[in-house]
Amino acid sequence: MDQYLQGLFVLAHDSAAEVRKLVCAAFVQLIEVNPSFLEPHLRNVIEYMLQVNKDSDDEVALEACEFWSAYCDAQLPLENLREFLPRLIPVLLSNMAYAEDDESLAEAEEDESLPDRDQDLKPRFHSSRFHGSDNAEDDDDDIVNIWNLRKCSAAGLDVLSNVFGDEILPTMMPIVQAKLSTTDDETWKEREAAVLALGAVAEGCITGLYPHLSEIVAFIIPLLDDKFPLIRSISCWTLSRFSRFVVQGIDHQKGCEQFDKVLRGLLRRILDTNKRVQEAACSAFATLEEEAAEKLAPHLEIILQHLMCAFGKYQRRNLRIVYDAIATLADAVGEKLNQPTHLDILMPPLIAKWQQLSNSDKDIFPLLECFTSIAQALGPGFSQFAEPVFQRCINIIQTQQLAKIDPASAGVQYDKEFIVCSLDLLSGLAEGLGSGIESLVAQSSLRDLLLQCCMDDDAPDVRQSAFALLGDLARVCPVHLHPRLSDFLNVAAKQLNTSKLKETVSVANNACWAIGELAVKVHQEVSPIVMTVISCLVPILQHAEELNKSLIENSAITLGRLAWVCPEIVSLHMEHFMQSWCTALSMIRDDIEKEDAFRGLCAMVRANPSGALSSLVYMCKAIASWHEIRSEELHNEVCQVLHGYKQMLRNGAWEQCMSALEPPVKDKLSKYQV
Predict the structure, then answer these.
(1) d(CA 672, CA 674)
(2) C-alpha dihedral over 413, 415, 416, 421, to 10 degrees?
(3) How is residue 599 annotated by DSSP?
(4) Where do the H-state alpha helices sit in 242-333?
(5) What are 569-601's pLDDT values in tens digits?
(6) How far apart, in whole angstroms, are the C-alpha atoms of residue 347 and residue 313?
(7) Which of 50, 54, 471, 570 has a CB 3.0–4.6 Å from the CB of 517, allowing a cystine?
(8) Contact yes or no for 617/584 (Cβ under 8 A)
C-alpha cells in the first residue's frame, strides 16, 4: 500500500489530464474502501485535492470534487478538513456556475411549443402499493440528468453543510452576497450559482440562516420573474428547499403574506413558456404542497386553475410532473377537495385525457396514479366517477393477462406495469369508496383476475400490489372473496414461506397484512391455514433484527389476529413465540391493528394460561407499551389477564416478576391495579 501511495503521489502532477483524473479517482476509492490507509497522509491528500479541484480540465476537477462527500461519509476526524473550509468553500462556489458547454444551457432555450422527443422522456418507476411503516421511497429533488462539476460541487456543499452546519456560513455568505449583488447580463451565471448555493445549504445551515430567512426568501421571490430562464428555475428549487420555513410562518401576518407570494410566484412559473422552468416550478410546488398540507385548502381554486391550465399546455415529459403535483395536492388536502367548484375545474380535463389515451399507451400510468390519489382524497365523493374507472382497470388487467400468454390475440405487448398501476388504482377506489365499491365488484370478474395476479410467480411487484388490493377488499367487501377464500389464503400463506424472503419482503409484508384483514372478517374459516401461517410468522419474529420493520409489525399483528379468531389452535404453541411476539408488539404504535393483536393475546391466555408463564416479563412490557387503550372492553380484558396471573403466582412469584421490570414499565402497569 505504501508503494502504491508513493506511486500516486509521483503521478499527482502528471501533464496528462487523464492521469491526474485517475489519481483523484484512486484517492476517492481509497477513502471509500479503507480510509485508514490515507490517514497518515491526509493533510497532503486534502491539499492536493483542493488544488486539483481547480484544475483547468473539468473532468479532473469533477473527479477531485467527489472527494469531499466521500471524506464526510468515511467518518474520518472532521478536524482535518475543518481548517481547509475557508479555502474549499470558495472553490466549490466558483465551480457551481454553469460551464459554457453545459447541456442545460441549450435545453434552457427550448420553448414549450416544441414537442418532446422520445429520448427526452426518462423511464418512470411506479412503486407498488405497500402496507406499513417504512416503504423505502427515495425522491431526489434535483432533476437528474448528467452528473457534472456543477452538480457535484453543489452536492459537496450540501454534504459539508450537513456535517459542519453553520460553520461554513462565515466563508460562504459574503461570496454569495457579492454574486447576488451583480446586475449585468454577463454575470447571470454567478447569480444563478449563488441561488443554487443557498438551496444546497438549506438543510444543513438552517439554524444559522434562520434569523435571515425571511430576507433571503424575500430576495429570491423577485428572481422568479428574472429574464434568464435558468435563474427562474433555480429560484423555484431553492424556495422549495425553504418551504418548511415558509409554511411555518403562515400563522402571523408577515409570514402569511410571504407564503402567499411564494405560492403565487410558483404558480406563475408553472405557466412559464420555458420547459425547464415549468419542470422546476411544478416539482417545487409539489414540495410546498407536502409541507403545507391542509393549509392549502383556502387556495384550492387558484391552485387548481393553474395546474389544469398547465395540464392543457404541457408537453409529455412535464405533463408527468403536473400529474404528480395534482396527486400530491389531493394527498395534502384530502376531503377538502370534495367540492363541486373544485371538481368542476379538476375532473373534466382529466376525464378528457382518460378518454383520449388507449389501454396500451404508457402515458396512462401517471394518470392512473393521479386518479388513485384523487379517489382516496374524495372518498365517497369519487363515486360519480368510479364506474368507468373501475371498469377500465378490469379491462386493462384482462388484456394484459391475455397478452402474457398470447400477445397476438390480445393485440398488445405484455407489460406488467399496466397491471400494477391498475391494481393500485383499484386499491385507491376500495379505500376511497369503502363499501360503496361492493356493487362494482359484484358485477365484475375482479375476484378471479385478482387470484391470478396473486399467483403471478414471475412478477413480485404484481403480487405485491395484488395482496395490497386483497387486504383492501377484505376490509370493505369480504363477501365477494368468499367463493375463492381458501385459494386466496393458501397463496398468501405461500408468500411467507419462502427461502428468498429478503428479496420479496414487500410481497410477504402485504400478503401477511392481507391474511390478518381476512381473518378478522371471516373468523373460523381461516382455521385450515392458521398453523401454516403461524409456522412462517414465528421464524420471522425470531429474526426481527435482520428483517424490515414493517414486516415484523405486520407479522405480529397478523399472528394476534389469528389468535383472536382461532385461540384454541394458536394457544397450543404459545411458548414457542411469546417472547419474540411480545417484543415485536411493544414496538408498535397505538392503533386499531394493535388492539386486534392484544385481543388475540387475551384470548390465548384464557385458552392456555400456562403457555405464557415463562414469558410473563415480556408480556408485561408489551402491555406497558400502550399510551392508552382506547377500547374500554379491551382495557378490562388486559386487566383480567394481569389479575389472573397475580392470583396464579403464589409465594412471592408475582412480586419476583414485577421486580424484574424497569420502573417506567411498572408505572404503566399501575393503571391496571396490580
Answers:
(1) 6
(2) -120
(3) H
(4) 243-248, 253-270, 275-292, 300-313, 316-333
(5) 999 999 999 999 999 999 999 999 999 999 999
(6) 16
(7) 471
(8) no
